[in-house]
Amino acid sequence: MAASALFILDLKGKPLISRNYKGDVGLGEIENFMGVLLQREEEGTLTPVLTHGHVHFLWIKHANLYLVATTKKNGNASLVFSFLYKVVEVFCEYFKELEEESIRDNFVIVYELLDELMDFGFPQTTDSKILQEYITQEGNKLETGKSRVPTTVTNAVSWRSEGIRYKKNEVFIDVIEAVNLLVSANGSVVLSEVVGTIKLKVFLSGMPELRLGLNDRVLFELTGRGKNKSVELEDVKFHQCVRLSRFDNDRTISFIPPDGDFELMSYRLHTQVKPLIWIESIIEKFSHSRVEIMVKAKGQFKKQSVANGVEISVPVPSDADSPKFKTTVGSARYLPERNVVVWSIKSFPVSAWPGPGLGCPPYYQIRTS
Question: Per residue in 57-106, pLDDT tens?
Fold first, then answer.
């Protein structure tokens, strides 16, 4: 079972708009949500699922809004949370920014979207590109000229419209990876992983079927190739267009892509990765009211590479008063609301040379006092 009702609340817990899909949870139950949330927040036991009596509240916060799904059943929490985040994504596609004002200005469109996004408590059509084919807007009003439901909703390929034509067929692929590291106090790497996504921008005519090959270890084993340059993908998550049965059988990523931008897949790699930028710090206390922090940063990536837009956060005491900084490169600014000094380096080459008399040549430095 999924959600019984969906509510959008302001920061004070006042309902802005709601949709009751099943009728087994009264709309008045939402009045208990804010009280339970504030109580659990004070106790330090706040969780994504809150319960009052027999009613469960599954909630997320976005900007100045709470999106809350209610149910009395033992529902699929993962499905509900995935749906709530999808609602945010769809609303952002329509209104650019999802906040209280955008909900108040677009009640008609929001109601139409809530009707199409979920049916009797179960997610239905959640692809914004398909929704925009028959729920369109002009200003803040719904355009009613197109009442016919597009065939893509009932097609086997519900994420792509028929009859798409381009003069020039193009596909752009971006592989975006982030490195997460846990380093112990003595400088050794305790845990390292790579979290990646593959995003596509597709401008193809008709209904093309694409295939994508990766240096997946399982695929290399199936084809009898070596493992030297292969990786073991974990926590793989695909867009709905990927044929999962084909991937399970021969590790081939075969799909008919949506039109335009979309995320094809995400994955995780547990592999040994050294920190791209190594940080060392020295803290000296001179008196009860003065402390000096020296932070060194060293690049450890390939020499031909450059790290752009590097920001290093240096924590400072919460009672710090007008700290002073001296950097060998870049600039620093104090953010009292976060109790940190942010050291910004526009371009960080691996061969850092701070200059004579400023410490070891491979390091950049910042002094905060």
Answer: 999 999 899 999 999 988 888 899 999 999 998 888 888 888 888 888 88
For residue 209 the two structure tokens come to: 């079927």
Query: Can you tell me the mean pLDDT for 152-162?
Result: 67
Burial readout 165-190 (b: 16 or more C-beta within 10 A, e: otherwise): eeeeeeeeeeeeeeeeeeeeeeeeee
- Dmax of the chain from CA atoms? 75
Contact predicate 199/264, CB 8 Å: yes
- Only one residue has tokens 């926590």, namely 235
Contact 71, 56 (CB under 8 A): yes
The neighbouring-strand residues paired with 81 are none
CB 32 within 8 Å of CB 19: no
Residue 16, Cα to own-chain centre: how many angstroms?
25
Question: What angle, 0 to 180 degrees and rounded to 10, lies between the N-to-C axes of helices 77-95 and 107-117?
Answer: 140
Instruction: Note the pLDDT tens digit of each residue in 23-42.
Output: 888 888 999 999 999 999 88
CA–CA separation, 172 and 165 (whole Å): 17
Terminal-to-terminal C-alpha distance of the chain: 57
Percent of the chain with pLDDT over 70: 86
Closest CA to 202 of 264, 112, 123, 254: 264
| CA–CA dist 111, 171 (Å, integer) | 35
Q: Which helix (H) or strand (E) holds 88?
A: helix 77-95
- 42-46, 103-107, 140-144: least confident range: 140-144
Given a cut of 70, is residue 359 above it in pLDDT? no
Distance CA 86, CA 66 (A): 14
Whether this prediction's pTM lies above 0.70 is answered by no
The secondary element (H helix, E strand) that includes residue 182 is strand 170-183
Determine how many CB atoms are found less than 10 A away from the CB of residue 110: 22
Single out the residue of 159, 155, 152, 84 nearest to residue 118, CA to CA: 84
Rounded Cα–Cα distance for residues 28 and 54 (Å): 13
CA 185, 356, 286 angle in degrees (round to 5)?
Answer: 50
The Cα–Cα gap between 19 and 4 comes to: 9
